[in-house]
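Instructor's aside before we start: the two examples that follow are unrelated to each other. I chose them only because their records fit on one page, so don't look for a connection. First example below.
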Amino acid sequence: MQILFRAFLAVYLGYLLTDFVFQTTRLVEQKRRGKASGYLLHGLIHYFSAVIITGFVLRGSILLPRTHLVILGLTFVHLLIDLAKIEFAGRHPASDGSLAYVGDQLLHFLTVVLAAWLLTPAVPFSELSNLLQQSRALPNKVLAVPVIYVGVVFGGGYLIRFLVRSLATGVKSHSHERTSEQLQNAGLYIGWLERFLVITALLLQSPATVGLILTAKSIARYPEFKSERFAEYFLIGTLLSISIALVGGALLAKLIFGQVRFSG
C-alpha cells in the first residue's frame, strides 16, 4: 500500500506542477486557440515532469517500459481532458468556466489514481480503502507536503479566480486605474503568497500570524476600499483564499502530526 500511495503522490505532483506552475499564460492562450504546438509542449512538460518525479520516488521505475507507457497514456488523456474543458467552456460561457474547471480537476484526479494503480499492479483495488491509514509513514509525509502546497497555493488561486470573475468584471466598470485583468493578476500573485504563508504559519503552530497577514493585506488595499464593489471583491476573494489555506494546513497538519491542533 505504501508503494501505491507514493506512486499517486509522485504522479499527482507532476500534474500539479504541469498545470499550475509550468503552464504559462501564453501556453494557455495557444491551447485556447487550438494550436497543436501548445498542446504538444504542454504534453511534453507533463510527461517529463511525471517521469522524473516518479523515477526519483519509485526506485528503478524509470527504467521500466511500463512506467513510460502508463505516463504516456496519462499524458494523452490529460490533453484530451484539457481539450474537452476548453470546448465545454466555449460552448457554455454563462458558467464562467467554473463548472468546466471543477470537472477538469476531478477527471485529472481520477486518471492520476488509475495511473498510480497501473504503476503498481500488485496492489488490488480491495486495499485502496486502507490508503489513508498508511499516509502517516514518514516518506509519504514528506511527499505530501509539496502536493498540498502546490495544490492549495496555485490550484486554489485559479479556482478563486474563476469564482470571483463576475465581481472582477464589476470592479472594472468602476475603476479607471486598473483593468480587470491587471486586478485579477495582482490578486492571483498576492493570493499565492498569502496561502503559502498561512499554511506555513499553521504548520509552525502560529495561527496568530494569519491575523498579521490579513492586517498587512488590508492596510495595503485600504485606499481602494472607498469602492463598495472592490470591497466586496476583496472580502470574498480573501475569505475564499484563507479558507482554502486553512483546509490545506489542517490536512497537512493531520498527515504530519497525526492531529489538527494549533496553539495561539
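Example two begins here.
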Amino acid sequence: MSAWPAWARRFVLPAITTAIAAVATLLLWPVIQPTASPLFFLAVMISSVYGGITAGLVATLLSGIATAYFFMVPELSLRVGSGDIFRLVVFGAVALLTNSIAAERNQTQAQQKRLVEELRAANARIRTLSDVLPVCPDCKRVRVSSDWKTVERYLAETPELQISHALCPECSARHFPEFQAAPK
C-alpha cells in the first residue's frame, strides 16, 4: 500500500473501499436490513489504517452519503428523515473514533520504526568501536580499512569517541617533577 502515491492513498483508496462496501451491502441488503453500516465501518477502518486521517475522513463522508442515498428512505435520494439523522450521526461519531484510533496506531508504528532505526545505527556504532584496532608497534599508527593513520587523526575522525588529555603518573613525574609530592 505504501507504493501508492500519497494522493491515491488519501482519495482513491477510500473511494474504492466505500464502493466495495456499498456494492456488498446492496447484495447483502435483504439479509442485513435495517443496518447498512458494518461494511462501511470496514471501509473507514481500512482507509484510516492504510491511508491516514484524510483517507479515513473521506471514507466517512463517502460512506455517510452512500448510506443515505442507497439505504435510507426515500431510497436514491439524499433526503434524510429525522430518525435516520441519528443513525448517520452515530455512524459518523464511531467512524471518527475509529479514524482517530487508526491515526494513533499509525503514529505509534512510525515512531517504533524510527526507534528501531536509531537502535540499529547505535548498534553499528558500538560494533565499530568494539572492533580490534591494529596498531603498529613501531610508529604507533593505526590501520583503518586499508589506510594507516596517526592515533590523533583516527580519534579526530571518529566522532563516537570522546577523549580527554591526561598524564599518567610516570609521565607527570618525568615532565613536572616540581609538582610531585616529596617522598615520606
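The mean pLDDT is 85.
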